[in-house]
UniProtKB/TrEMBL annotation, chain A:
Keywords: Signal. Residues 1-20 form the signal peptide. It comes from the Bacteria. This is Uncharacterized protein.
UniProtKB/TrEMBL annotation, chain B:
This is histidine kinase. Keywords: Kinase, Membrane, Phosphoprotein, Transferase, Transmembrane, Transmembrane helix, Two-component regulatory system. It comes from Tanticharoenia sakaeratensis NBRC 103193. Its EC number is 2.7.13.3. It is found in: Membrane. Residues 463-494 are annotated as: Disordered. GO terms for cellular component: plasma membrane. The chain crosses the membrane at residues 21-41, 167-188.
UniProtKB/TrEMBL annotation, chain C:
One of its GO terms (molecular function) is phosphorelay response regulator activity. GO terms for cellular component: cytosol; protein-DNA complex. Keywords: DNA-binding, Phosphoprotein, Transcription, Transcription regulation, Two-component regulatory system. Residues 2-117 form the Response regulatory domain. SUPFAM superfamilies: CheY-like. It comes from the Bacteria. Pfam families: Response_reg (PF00072), Trans_reg_C (PF00486). This is Two component response regulator. The modification 4-aspartylphosphate is found at D51. It comes from Tanticharoenia sakaeratensis NBRC 103193. Residues 127-225 bind DNA. CDD domains: REC_OmpR_CusR-like (cd19935), trans_reg_C (cd00383). GO terms for biological process: regulation of DNA-templated transcription.
Length: 97, 494, 226
């Protein structure tokens, strides 16, 4: 009697833990062929943003320029996403000022 | 043999302790698993809903641009949002009715994103790195379609992290539970083994052992076990005492009868002599039978089996009848028997047993009273309220009485006071009265008078049968109180 | 009287049978329950003496129950080594007419046997008056007369005399008196019965020339005209 209830309890807890654990399916690790490319991570988008800043920002906006330069440099050296991040911040700064 | 039994008992105890603690540990592990799973489910669910709400709000804002400024306004809004997206998680895709991409940061419409009423979780490729996104498609008026989504890479990272944390904390909790279970098992084992050690010692014959008290809840068991042991010791003493007494008090008349018969066989010359010897032997044997009968009766009453014959009857009538039966005998012995009885008194008990008890008390009084003295049979009810109400049936004489030490031993089986050695009797009368008192849940009171003795039967007055559940406890009570076999002593009133 | 004695102990059986024969009865013996039951149902007896515990699978109570279930009203005296009050009640409930515990004195048994036989006859005609020699009692008016003289008795004394009269010419033992007149089932240590009988004698015998109540040594009393 005792042994049977023990087995039941342990089995239940294992099942619950398995249910609780995240599985690969749910996290969406699909094969690369299925994945859609996000275009705003590209060097091209980097340049688009640079051009936008150039056209909108007067030369006197030193902070914006600084961020733009940093972003452009990061993009050119291959760090596209950090670069885009800088450029977006520059644009945000530009809007708020 | 005894050792094997003890070892077997030990083993059973051990496994009992183990399964007890195992069950405790597993229960603990199970409940913590349940709790942590719930926590995980709630947290991830909350994160998911937040993203969904953000996506939906975003779409409604864009739809407003569409309504106000048409397609160019919407395109501008999307561009603007992508430019300002410092969090780097926004995903948009606007396509024309023919499927051509108008604006957005997805390269193409993902396959399998068809319905507009569900959220899709789809893989995306960001700068060559796979990530997960939550996408929601909407139909715009005019045939255009739009996807609004979010990169949920953060959630995807957080979720296994959270799961890991919870799993690990579950492991810790389970380890703690197992540890606790082992501790509990240890405590359990210690408690039980202290009782087992004591009882094992008792089974080996060491009657002096007792379970040590530890000052905690275990004492409840320990005290009961100790009381049980005390009782066993007293019972064993009682058995020893009675068997000694039987050996003495039955052997005497049997050997007397034997001697008489042997003597008659060898030395009697006339038929009359022979007949006389045989008659004396027969009367000795009758005495043995009477002692046996009294002993059996006492044993039977003490076993509590006689409560079956309980009924409600008028105690006054019963006592009056016995008084009448004995008054003649008293008169014959030149004594006066006076009675002080109520007109009527209903009583719940065994009528025959009460008759027997009172007859024994009167027999004793008549036997030990000097000529021209008075014996009083009285019955009185005390003034207490119903449940504690008691009736006292007393027989007082003006006879030789008893000294204090004899009083204490008077109801022991076969006890006979020194002064009573020469009167006939087996010394069982008061034992029987005492047993009858206890059968009725009452007790026997002996007190000295000057001169004489007062023997009182104090019985609880229950006119109705006690509830059935009471029956066992009553029998137990009466047999338990029997163990303190001394009757209640009332110090001499003189 | 024709008596069936079912008793497995040979000593007790032969002793009892011998005594009963000497007292003028015809005794058939059986040493086991099976034969005893057969004899009891197939022959006519005036009395059956049954031991409660018998070998052969059929005990005394079974025989008694079988007899009674066949509407056989033969008086039955049960003998038993079980002195328990409950056992006595069980025996009487099963249809027994009297119950004696072993060991017993033969005089006691003989007295009870005679009493049972008498009862079988007496029950046929209810009486309102009993008389022995010149002693006469009226059960309705509860009066006692000896010769022409009226005797005043206490209620209990009347019942004692009534019992002796009903068993006139028969020995009645002290235990029988205690059981039937007082309805007590214990052995008093004192001679209470003797005292009551002697009081009765004071009233019934003492003032007259001849005594009717006699003491039988080692047995009890008998009421008879000499």
């Amino acid at each position: 009697m005792m042994v049977r209830s023990l087995i039941f309890v342990s089995a239940t807890s294992v099942v619950l833990l398995c249910a609780a654990a995240p599985d690969a399916e749910q996290l969406g690790w699909h094969p690369a062929s299925d994945a859609v490319v996000v275009t705003t991570d590209s060097l091209a988008y980097c340049h688009t943003l640079e051009r936008t800043i150039e056209t909108r920002a007067p030369a006197s906006f030193q902070n914006v320029r600084l961020l733009e330069t940093q972003g452009a440099r990061l993009c050119d050296s291959g760090h596209v996403r950090p670069g885009i991040d800088r450029l977006r911040r520059a644009l945000q700064l530009l809007r708020h000022s | 043999m005894m050792r094997t039994i003890v070892a077997f008992v030990r083993l059973r105890l051990r496994s009992a302790g183990l399964s007890f603690s195992l069950a405790y540990g597993l229960l603990y592990a199970l409940s913590s698993a349940l709790f942590l799973s719930f926590l995980w489910w709630r947290t991830t669910g909350l994160m998911e809903r937040q993203v969904e709400q953000a996506v939906d709000a975003d779409y409604h804002a864009l739809a407003e641009h569409w309504v106000q400024d048409g397609l160019p306004g919407l395109v501008l809004a999307i561009q603007d949002r992508l430019e300002q997206n410092v969090d780097d998680d926004a995903i948009y895709l606007l396509v024309a009715p023919d499927g051509r991409k108008i604006e957005g940061n997805l390269v193409s419409w993902p396959r399998n994103v068809t319905r507009t009423d569900v959220n899709y979780e789809r893989a995306i490729l960001r700068d060559g790195v796979k990530a997960t996104s939550l996408l929601h498609a909407y139909d715009l008026p005019g045939g255009c379609r739009i996807i609004v989504g979010r990169d949920i890479r953060g959630r995807a990272i957080l979720r296994p992290l959270l799961a890991d944390t919870l799993v690990w904390s579950w492991v810790m909790v389970t380890l703690l539970a197992v540890g606790g279970a082992l501790v509990v098992r240890g405590i359990f084992k210690r408690i039980v083994s202290s009782i087992a050690r004591t009882t094992a010692a008792i089974t080996h014959g060491d009657m002096a052992q007792r379970v040590p008290l530890m000052g905690n809840e275990v004492d409840l068991v320990a005290v009961v076990v100790n009381e049980m042991l005390d009782r066993i010791v007293r019972l064993m003493d009682g058995v020893r005492q009675v068997s000694n007494a039987i050996a003495h008090d039955l052997r005497t008349p049997i050997s007397r009868a034997r001697a008489q018969l042997e003597d008659a066989a060898l030395n009697c010359h006339t038929t009359d002599e022979l007949r006389g010897a045989i008659e004396r032997a027969v009367s000795d044997l009758d005495h043995v039978t009477a002692v046996f009968e009294a002993l059996m009766r006492i044993a039977q009453i003490e076993a509590g089996a006689r409560r079956a014959a309980f009924e409600t009857f008028d105690l006054a009538t019963v006592l009056t009848d016995i008084g009448e039966l004995y008054s003649a005998a008293a008169e014959d012995a030149h004594l006066t028997l006076t009675t002080a009885l109520p007109g009527e008194q209903q009583f719940y008990g065994d009528q025959r047993m009460i008759q027997q008890a009172v007859a024994n008390m009167l027999d004793n009084a008549i036997k030990f009273s000097p000529q021209a003295s008075t014996i009083t049979l009285s019955c009185a009810v005390d003034s207490k309220s119903a449940p504690q109400r008691r009736v006292t049936i007393a027989v007082s004489d003006e006879g030789i009485g008893m000294n204090e030490s004899d009083l204490a031993r008077a109801s022991e089986r076969f006890f006979r006071a020194e002064t009573a050695r020469n009167t006939p009797g087996a010394g069982l009368g008061l034992s029987l009265v005492q047993a009858i008192a206890q059968l009725h849940g009452g007790h026997l009171e002996l007190s000295r008078r000057n001169p004489g003795l007062r023997v009182a039967l104090v019985l609880p007055l229950a006119t109705k049968p006690p509830p059935r559940t009471d029956r066992n406890s009553m029998t137990q009570d009466s047999s338990a109180s029997h163990l303190s076999a001394t009757p209640v002593l009332v110090s001499g009133s003189a | 009287m024709r008596i069936l004695l079912v008793e497995d102990d040979p000593t007790v059986r032969s002793f009892t049978a011998k005594g009963l024969r000497e007292a003028g009865h015809v005794v058939e013996e059986s040493d086991n329950g099976k034969d005893g039951l057969f004899m009891a149902v197939s022959e006519n007896f005036d009395l059956v003496i049954l031991d409660r515990m018998l070998p052969g699978g059929i005990d005394g109570l079974r025989i008694l129950q079988t007899l009674r279930s066949q509407n056989n009203a033969t008086p039955v005296l049960i003998l038993s080594a079980l002195a328990d009050v409950d056992e006595r009640v069980a025996g009487l409930k099963a249809g027994g007419d009297d119950y004696m515990t072993k060991p017993f004195a033969f005089s006691e048994m003989l007295a009870r046997v005679e009493a049972l036989a008498r009862r079988g006859r007496a029950e046929q005609a209810p009486q309102t008056k009993l008389s022995v020699a010149d002693l006469e009692i009226d059960l309705l008016s509860r009066t006692v007369k000896r010769g022409n003289e009226r005797i005043d008795l206490q209620p209990r004394e009347f019942r004692l005399l009534e019992f002796l009269m009903r068993h006139a010419g028969q020995v009645v033992t002290r235990t029988m008196l205690l059981e039937r007149v007082w309805d007590y089932h214990f052995d008093p240590q004192t001679n209470v019965i003797d005292v009551h009988v002697s009081r009765l004698r004071q009233k019934v015998d003492k003032p007259f020339d001849t005594a009717l109540i006699h003491t039988i040594r080692n047995a009890g009393y008998i009421l008879r005209a000499e």
